[in-house]
Amino acid sequence: MPKKAKFMMYFSVFAMLFAGFSVYAGVSSGERTIYAVGCHRHDATCYVEITGEPVGPAACRATSVRWRRTEANGEAAFTHLTAAFIANKKVILQVSDTCYPYQPTFPTLDYWQIR
Description:
It is built from two helices and five strands; from the N terminus they run H-E-E-E-H-E-E. It is 25% helix and 37% strand. A five-stranded antiparallel beta sheet has the order 3-2-1-4-5.
């Protein structure tokens, strides 16, 4: 097999193996308990307050994590996290590596998991 064809074959196999992997720069909260959840009346900001150490980037580490209810899955986040709060379920929050742009003293929720 010619070197170029062999290289392309190995490159294709390598690309297929790693195509499903993505690099995520955010931070996991680890398993936590929710002690408050809500949304602001005057805008689309929602929040969840969790027990334990602050999470998020150094510029906005906090135990309160924010997101926009009007963004993709924002309403679902509010519904799921409220249900977890009511059921006293543990959650794992994945927060962005950037601060919440509308209130930059808080980290931004990227995704969540209910335990």
